[in-house]
Design goal:
This protein is of the alpha+beta class. Helices cover 41% and strands 9% of the residues. The chain is built from 29 helices and 19 strands. A hairpin with a 2-residue loop joins β10 (453-454) and β11 (457-458). α2 packs parallel to α8 (165-181) and α13 (244-261) runs antiparallel to α14. InterPro entries: Beta-lactam/transpept-like (IPR012338), Glyco_trans_51 (IPR001264), Glycosyltr_51/Transpeptidase (IPR050396), Lysozyme-like_dom_sf (IPR023346), PBP_transglycosylase (IPR036950), PCN-bd_Tpept (IPR001460). It comes from Micromonospora profundi. Residues 73-258 form the Glycosyl transferase family domain.
Amino acid sequence: MAASRSPLSRLFTVLLAGLLAGLVLAVAALPGNLLLGFAAQSAIGTYAALPEALRTPATPQRSYLYANDGKTLITTFYDVNRTDVALADIAPVMRQAIVASEDRRFYDHGGADVRGLLRALVANVKGGGNEQGGSTLTMQYVRNVLKTDPTRSAEERAAATDPTIGRKVQEIRYASALEQSLSKDEILNRYLNIAYFGSGAYGIAAASQRYFGKPPARLTLAEAALLAGLVQSPDAYSPIDGDKDAALARRGYVLDSMAATGAITAAQATQAKAEPLTLKPTAQPNGCTAVAQGHDDWGFFCDYLRRWWLTQPAFGATAAEREQALRSGGYRVVTSLDPEVQATAQQQATKVYGYDNKRALPIAAVQPGTGQVLAMAVNRHYSLADNPDGQANYPNTVNPLISGGASVDGYQAGSTFKLFTMLAALESGRTLSTGFDAPARLPTRYTAEGPGSCDGRWCPVNANPDWMDGYRMMWDGFGRSVNTYFVWLAEQVGQDKVVEMAQRLGITFRAESDAAFAKNNAANWGSFTLGVAATTPLDLANAYATVAAEGTYCTPVPVVSVTDATGAKVPVGEPSCKRVLDADVARAATDAARCPVGQQSPYGQCNGGTATVVNRILDGRPVAGKTGSSEENATETFVGFTPQVAVAGIAANPDDPTDSVGSAVQARVIDAVARVIGTAVKGQPEKAFTAPSRELAGEPRRPVPRAPATPDREREPSQDPRSALQRWLDRQG
């Protein structure tokens, strides 16, 4: 509770302190206006009349980002490196040291120390470079709050340190009002949480970590004395950035002061003075380029979270306010990043392509039913470091290669887009048994010129006619990735319905040419079903996650929970989900999607797939998915899913879409994605897919032979009438 002092005593203290404070400043700096300043400012202040920042501190604090276990630190964000701690979490010797160093009579005065002011007055009159301010800890706390209050203007913050009589007397009034309502321990706690200790550390928690790599509860006597000595002149005394000898001399002064106050014995002071200065400097990471050591791959996820944060109204009305909230709000953010899944994804991405390869394998993992992003990996360092000449994006980049945005439109994902055609067809009333005698080459109604045309019409072909041509249904058409079957099916349904389905499941057209085609000419986008639109692994994984969740689309989200500096939960990050597909339609699509990965539909209609190795890698666990190869094998894609996770990877050259990665890498992409799925479901119960209704399965028109020889790769040439170079040029504007 607050110290017990009579109203008369408090009045006398305030009046005398105000007079002496004016004299101190008048003698030291401003000879005139003493009486005017005193007359205008000497009234007693009340706690209720204090600025809000003094009653409810709103000091800037560091925000922490953790992985989904709530323990693994990813990074921190801050403008001011500080974190509040309770007084009980600060070593008693630290509390004693700061009192002995800065305000020996702290527990005796009422906010302004008359003796201290007299002592300062005498010292300042004498001069000789030994000027003193006579400020108590309470007055210093007032000054620190007002000069750092984020709710005040820059001019108001600067005025908190003006060398004027009015400012000094106001400081005394505010200190007196605080002491009438707060206990000494509360004031001391607030002071220790805001004082600047040099080297970028604000507050005792940040200082203890910055200088000694430990929490303030574990500070030794010598360490506490050193930190207490820094607050008088943080930059000059800092043993990291300033003068170590001066820091040690100041430490000795603090220890002697502690002995003089009886906090420690003279012997203890002597022993502590003899201890060598042993620092363990620990720099707190700041931002996405300063993620935990050895985990710079986490930076891509961190960057995605930051972009998400800037769109959330809960953190401010504008992007600038939200950015400032992240850097000064003291938030504790438990992200959705799964360290084990991320580690596997990064290992697999770099196994396919090394860090110094111009080609990349961005991989994203999403949890169906929540939209939580579990991993974002690519064979790049998230770094602002320079790259060798001619290497725009490798080995270092901060571009969002996995999620898209900024300058990244994405990559063609080939036949993975056939899923959207199948869904649109099922939704329109067609069944999985819908059959078509797929030819090697299919003349369409779409006009085209060049090698992909016949008599002025676009004529897509099957990559492997001997294995793909013939009568197909959705099961084996999807399993064998038969181009002509799905182009025909899209014509029956309507290309605009297919495009709309992709958008409904979260596919975003970031390339201007793709967005324009989708908006103005979707009905004539014949090649859309073959995956000519640019997308990203994150969009693709989340689209397939929607099917895994039986038609429930969830907006991708990078957090599990966010709490503010007071521990209150912020209402953001909850799954934002809605039904976009009938559950039976999604189940039917899943049923067909088991064919590519070497599994069997409950209706027994799978007879070959392009990624049968997945079934072996996952040891028969229920899984579905689809491969995709863009024109001339410019990219190779695989996306797979179980009821618990969806993972997508796209091999591409982010800087040059005309650089074909080649068909040989497809097997490695499939293997990489399958192993990420394996890590994600490890330890989880095996969960089966629900079979679709007989109504949507339909009646197969002929028996299907079981498991013929099947190549574990696919190729879809001539998917787009435009050349790869032309499409790239189109995207450049």
